[in-house]
Amino acid sequence: MAKRRNGIAQPRVDARAKVVILCGGKGTRLHEETELKPKPMAQIGGRPILWHIMKIYAHAGFTDFVLCLGYKGDVIKKYFLDYDLMGRDFTITMGEAPKIEMHGTPLEKGWTITFAETGPEAMTGARLKRIEKYIDTKYLMLTYGDGVANLDVRKLFAFHKSHGKIGTVTGVRPPSRFGELLVDGDTVREFSEKPQTGSGFINGGFFVFDRRIFDYVEDNERCTFEGQPLSRLASDGELAIYKLQTFWQCMDTYRDLQMLNKVWETGHPEWRVWSH
């Protein structure tokens, strides 16, 4: 069990990583889906995109999750509380000592999920800072709750440990609508948030950090992770890029959601790296 100092979990000496997923935004550009549920619960093939993201990590052996909740976080909590009950047969014994007996094989094995309420209005940097107390590993993964990729997480993790910098960001090459990464070899030299024009690699999420990242964020509602924290990390020469040349897609609009569902229906979605 990890030791604690001043209320903060101290890292274990292992080489694994907890997976932090930002699930708290309102997703206003996907209002058709997000009036009644948070963006990560929009469904692809009958499952929330959040589930798809978690399956990508779990396939690589990373099954210890921390979900940063905010807008309608109760919907995410209820989904996972009911997850096995809705997907498996079970028998209820009613009476003074009621019990539930589950039948068959668990839908997922070994998943540990921490549901962290990080505030309905908090920005991404504040959300990350507020879950520091739950990170008791030397490394942590971080991603958004709205993007999938054909990504070998084990290779990403090995790359991060090889260079010794504080952070690694997965760089991708879709249309330039997101934070652009100006790179020199495997090092990010400048982080430009959502440029009007530009080309090259952009921020695809799927970060890896060591615990020093918590020195770059603060518990301030307006602290946006993609702003000053990542910009400062890049200017300090502490942000490397893992260049992903395979499939990546975010779910920014309803059109994106429709496209992802069409890809899933083909039976060969490129981000499905898991077998079952």
What can you tell me about this protein's structure?
Mean pLDDT is 88; it is low at 11-15. The protein has 276 residues and is of the alpha/beta class. Helix content is 24%, strand content 27%. The two termini are 31 Å apart. The protein contains 8 helices and 18 strands. The protein has a single domain, classed as Spore Coat Polysaccharide Biosynthesis Protein SpsA, Chain A (Alpha-Beta Complex), CATH 3.90.550. The strands form 6 sheets. Strands 3, 6, 9, 10, 12, 15, 16 and 17 form an 8-stranded mixed beta sheet that branches.
Outline:
The chain has 276 residues and is of the alpha/beta class. It is built from eight helices and 18 strands.
Topology:
Blueprint: E1 4-5, E2 8-9, E3 17-23, H1 31-34, E4 43-44, E5 47-48, H2 49-59, E6 64-69, H3 73-81, H4 83-87, E7 90-93, E8 99-102, E9 112-117, H5 124-130, E10 139-144, E11 147-149, H6 153-163, E12 167-172, E13 180-184, E14 187-192, E15 202-203, E16 207-210, H7 228-235, E17 239-243, E18 248-250, H8 254-265
Parallel strand pairs: 3-6, 3-10, 6-9, 12-17
Antiparallel strand pairs: 1-2, 4-5, 7-8, 10-16, 11-18, 12-15, 12-16, 13-14
Number of strands: 18
Look up the CATH topology.
Spore Coat Polysaccharide Biosynthesis Protein SpsA, Chain A
What's the CATH first level?
Alpha Beta
CATH structural architecture: Alpha-Beta Complex
Low-confidence stretches: 11-15
Strand content: 25-35%
Global outline: globular
Tell me, rounded to a whole number, the average pLDDT.
88
Q: Main beta sheet: strand number and arrangement?
A: 8 strands, mixed
| Secondary structure: helix percent | 10-25%
